[in-house]
Each structure stands twice: as structure tokens, then as C-alpha cells.
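Try this one yourself first.
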């Protein structure tokens, strides 16, 4: 069983509500779910869609063929009818669209009329559509009823009852009128956790003890701030919406200097404003975590689309030479663990750590059986309380063998905590002499960097141990590459290398991935950018040149079918 549903319509028509509700129903019923969205940068109008794939086997990407198209406007039919699979069906409301289709694969369902008749209000037309999909799939309505009860609990019993009645009306209509619907579903298993990349980053921050989050809203990072703010009271987090990105990073640095784990988030345009603060964090050795959500650029670009165009920007931005850690999760599970790791590395080595995501990963939803919290790390590396008071003396930037100085909390003891954005001595006071400058650079950069590199994991290897074909990528290409390897492996020795810990670039001591690449007959680097930024980084760090590249930079993610078409042409 492997079905794809697409909900299409204008902004403001509740596309996301229907998609989120159905995805939750499928996950709670025990199916594997993958969803992604496509929306324009406008509050009303335009054309948006929400695509859901459900299966009785694990899935990690979207496909091109649609089995059920839920059309809330004419544009959805014009754009997506050609994507229907054999037996695919379009459901729509002819009264709303003011257009009737007589084709056998079109099912006219009076969403609005049924909503008024059974729910008491046309606003419940989306609930009718959701129930209709359940009827087409032959699924039990009880899970949907439970979700509607949870969603509308604060609005009272009458609202809950009206929505359940509306869903039932849609369900009954579909069962009665879609007698030839070829969409039987298999029995679900245990309920699964449904989570998106944005929520996973926020959850990872909470797991790491984040106590301060500041940001200026900018798609696609805004959801992180929104998620953490909903948990702020429960976890004791201060969330501040700053006036701009410059203020956001400086607030985070101030909170970190004062003694708490801090984070900020933005997109590429906002990160451009943060780079002076990034360099300040490096000079003052103040830990901070930055979430960088990529979208097409330059300038405002396509604000609500996806791209992997900021990798080299994250690696080389800000003036001067200093260590940083850069992580690029490919799944919500990785986003959860790597955000936790970013905090640990930032605090342990007193450096900035960057978690790179993109619109595709941020908005896509995946199902998992759960996250293993035993893998999480939390250690307080700061000098506090009695340990700080008992120190005979304190130098904020003291020279040490590891390059890591004691990180004292101002006001927690009589010791003075001093730092400066100018080059400084061990106590934090401004200097001008060459000898101290050399020792400080060695401390901040050359001593720390090898230690940080030891904590960087090698790329994830999936597939054949001796592959003839190797797919390589980073960040959000994980899922589509995995499905491509599964397809290729039916006839060929194929594998993928997925890089989620980018910098310091992973060494080959734990896993000789450069050797695997060199032994393969074909190696393909897959990226959502125009210039092949990761391929360039691989060459710079290892000398290895991929035999082929597949680059997509139209603001849309790869689908599994699309990537397989590209690979078939190559191999």
C-alpha cells in the first residue's frame, strides 16, 4: 500500500488544516507518513498545495503520481490533474468552483452544502472534505473524531459535535458515491509519532537546556521560535522577538555571557545581518547556537521555497579565522539529535554552532516510532557557585592545553569576568602586542579545532558495502537519496553517503568514505543548488572530485521519481 494525496487551493482556504489533520490521522492509525508543502508568499490567493504520502512500509520522500486530489479551486485541477495515477480520483465541490466535470475520475462532493446541513456552518467544508477522504480509503472515523475533539476542546462540546457531524457527512457521501474507489488500505499497526523538521529543532533545543531564544521572524525559521514559545512556561525559556536579526544574535550572546544556554534562528538574509555578531561570539568565546533555515536567494529570493544555497556562507561567513561547528540534519530525527549536539559542542568549546535546515525539511513531516532520549547529551561546562567561588583566581581567557578556558558566570562569585571584542589578554583586557595575539589565535583556533573534529561523526552509509554507484549529499536530500538507493539496489550495487555533520569536515579515521568513493564506478553528488557547493567542499577537503552532479535550483525539492529519472539518464 502506497498512496499519495494532494490538497490544492488558495492561501486562506485551510489547505494546511486539512493536510495536518489527515497526516495525524494516518500516523495515529499506524501508517508511515511523509508530507511536504508548497505555498506562495502571500496571505490570501495564489496557489498552494499540501502533499501527503502514506504507506504500510517506511517512506522518506514524496512521489510525483497522485492517487487522490482534493481540489478547493480551479487552479488545482488545471495544474495537477495530469499528475493523477491510473485510477486516481479528483474530489471537488462544483458549486464552489462553479464548474462541473463529467469525467469518470472526478467525484463532485458538495463540501459547503454538507457543512451547512450537518455542521451548521460552511466554515466546516474542510472537515467534510477530510471525512470524505477517510471514506474513500475505507478507514474508521474514530481516530479523526478523537483528533477533532482534541483540536476543538477549548471551543466546547457543540463545536466538537458539529465538526464530527460534518466529517461523518463527508465520509458517508464518499462511501455511497465512490463505490469504485480503488484505495483499500491495509491494517495499521501501532500509532506513530508525527513530527516536522522545525518542531524537531525546537525540541532538540529544549532537550539541550536552552533557556533563551531570540529571533526576528523570517521564513522558514519562524516556526522554531513559535514552537519554543509554546513550551516556554513548561521549560522555563525566555523567548524574545527582536526588532531585527542584529539585535537577535546580540541578545543571545548577552544571555549566554550571563550564564544560560542561548539560541537564535533566521534565514539566509537574516544570517547576513548576524555575521558581525557571529564574529563577536568567536572573539569573546561565547557559546551560541544559530538555526539557519535556507531558502532561495540572493536578496529576498523566493521567501517560501526551498534551496541548499547557504552552505559555503555558513562555513566562511564572518571576518577572521575561528572554529565553528556546522550541522545539516536530513530528517526530523537528525534535527533533534544534532541540535542537542550543537548545544553540547558550543558550550564545551565555547564556539558558535550552526544548524542548517531549509524550507523543505522544516515543513515536511515524518513518522517515527519515537526518539531515544538516552542518546541526548547534557553537561554544564560552566564554572558556577561554590566551584567558582573557591577558585584562587580567575582569568576569562586563560591559556590552557585544550584552548578551552574556564567559563565563569558573572555575578556568581567575587571574581571579575571580563571579555572584549578587541584582541585581549588572558584576563580579557585589550592588548596590542604580537606575542599575545599569536598565543590567542593558537588557543582559540589551532588547539580547539582538532578536538572538535574528533567529535564530528562520519557520513551515514546506507546500502551496499562495496557499491559501484554512490550517491552523496547533505542535509535535506537524505530521504530522496535513500529511496533512490532502494530502487537502484534492485539491479545494481548502490549506496549513499549522507553528510549531516559538515564542519569541521569529518575525518576518514572512523570510516574511509573517500576510499569508498574512489572505488566506485560512478559517484553522484545531489544538491538543491546551482553550483554544487558540497561537491566543491569535498574537493577542497579531500581532493575527491565526483564523477557527476545533479543540481536542482528552481525552489522546489526533488521527488523520488524525479531523482530516479535523472539517475537513469546517468547510470
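Now uncover the answer:
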Amino acid at each position: 500500500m502506497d498512496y499519495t494525496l494532494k490538497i490544492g487551493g488558495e492561501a486562506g482556504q485551510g489547505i494546511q488544516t486539512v493536510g495536518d489533520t489527515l497526516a495525524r490521522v494516518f500516523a495515529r492509525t499506524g501508517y508511515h507518513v511523509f508530507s511536504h508543502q508548497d505555498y506562495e508568499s502571500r496571505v490570501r490567493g495564489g496557489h498552494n498545495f499540501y502533499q501527503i504520502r502514506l504507506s504500510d512500509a517506511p517512506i522518506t520522500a514524496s512521489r510525483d503520481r497522485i492517487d487522490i486530489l482534493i481540489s478547493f479551486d480551479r487552479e488545482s485541477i488545471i495544474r495537477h490533474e495530469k499528475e493523477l495515477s491510473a485510477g486516481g480520483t479528483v474530489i471537488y465541490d462544483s458549486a464552489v468552483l462553479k464548474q462541473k466535470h463529467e469525467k469518470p475520475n472526478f467525484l463532485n462532493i458538495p463540501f459547503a452544502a454538507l457543512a451547512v446541513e450537518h455542521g451548521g456552518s460552511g466554515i466546516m467544508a474542510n472537515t467534510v472534505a477530510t471525512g470524505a477522504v477517510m471514506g474513500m480509503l475505507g478507514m474508521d472515523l474514530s481516530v479523526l473524531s478523537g483528533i477533532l475533539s482534541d483540536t476543538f476542546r477549548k471551543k466546547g462540546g457543540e463545536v466538537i459535535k458539529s465538526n464530527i457531524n460534518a466529517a461523518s457527512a463527508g465520509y458517508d457521501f464518499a462511501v455511497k458515491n465512490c463505490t469504485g474507489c480503488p484505495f483499500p488500505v491495509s491494517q495499521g499497526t501501532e500509532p506513530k509519532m508525527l513530527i516536522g523538521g522545525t518542531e524537531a529543532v525546537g525540541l532538540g533545543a529544549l532537550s539541550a537546556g536552552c533557556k533563551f531564544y531570540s529571533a526576528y521572524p523570517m521564513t522558514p525559521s519562524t516556526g522554531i521560535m513559535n514552537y519554543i514559545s509554546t513550551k516556554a512556561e513548561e521549560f522555563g525559556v525566555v523567548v524574545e522577538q527582536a526588532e531585527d536579526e542584529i539585535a537577535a544574535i546580540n541578545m543571545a550572546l548577552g544571555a549566554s555571557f550571563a550564564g544560560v544556554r542561548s539560541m537564535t534562528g533566521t534565514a539566509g538574509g537574516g544570517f547576513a545581518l548576524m555575521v558581525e555578531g557571529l564574529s563577536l561570539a568567536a572573539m569573546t568565546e561565547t557559546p551560541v547556537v544559530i538555526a539557519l533555515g535556507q531558502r532561495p536567494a540572493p536578496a529576498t529570493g523566493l521567501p517560501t521555497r526551498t534551496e541548499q544555497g547557504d552552505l559555503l556562507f555558513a562555513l566562511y561567513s564572518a571576518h577572521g579565522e575561528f572554529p565553528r561547528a556546522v550541522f545539516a540534519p536530513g530528517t526530523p530525527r537528525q534535527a533533534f539529535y544534532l541540535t542537542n549536539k550543537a548545544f553540547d559542542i558550543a558550550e564545551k568549546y565555547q564556539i558558535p554552532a550552526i544548524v542548517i535546515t531549509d524550507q523543505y525539511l522544516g515543513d515536511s513531516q515524518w513518522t517515527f516510532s519515537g526518539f531515544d532520549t538516552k542518546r541526548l547529551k547534557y553537561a554544564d561546562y560552566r564554572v558556577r557557585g561554590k566551584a567558582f567561588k573557591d577558585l584562587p583566581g580567575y582569568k576569562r581567557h586563560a591559556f590552557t592545553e585544550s584552548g578551552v578556558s574556564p567559563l565563569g558566570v558573572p555575578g556568581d562569585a567575587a571574581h571579575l569576568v571580563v571579555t572584549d571584542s578587541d584582541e585581549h589578554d588572558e584576563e580579557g583586557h585589550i592588548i596590542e602586542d604580537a606575542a599575545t595575539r599569536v598565543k590567542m589565535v593558537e588557543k582559540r583556533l589551532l588547539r580547539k579545532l582538532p578536538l572538535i573534529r574528533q567529535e564530528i561523526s562520519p557520513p551515514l552509509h546506507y546500502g551496499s558495502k562495496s557499491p559501484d554507484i554512490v550517491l552523496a549529499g547533505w542535509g535535506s536530500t537524505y530521504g530522496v537519496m535513500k529511496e533512490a538507493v532502494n530502487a537502484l539496489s534492485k539491479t545494481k550495487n548502490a549506496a549513499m553517503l549522507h553528510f549531516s555533520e559538515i564542519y569541521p569536515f569529518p575525518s576518514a579515521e572512523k570510516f574511509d568514505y573517500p576510499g569508498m568513493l574512489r572505488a566506485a564506478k560512478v559517484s553522484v553528488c545531489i544538491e538543491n543548488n546551482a553550483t554544487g557547493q558540497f561537491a566543491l567542499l569535498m574537493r577542497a577537503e579531500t581532493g575527491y572530485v565526483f564523477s557527476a552532479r545533479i543540481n536542482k535550483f528552481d525552489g522546489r525539492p526533488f521527488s523520488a521519481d524525479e531523482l530516479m529519472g535523472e539517475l537513469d539518464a546517468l547510470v
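Discussion: The mean pLDDT is 96. The two ends are 29 Å apart (CA to CA).
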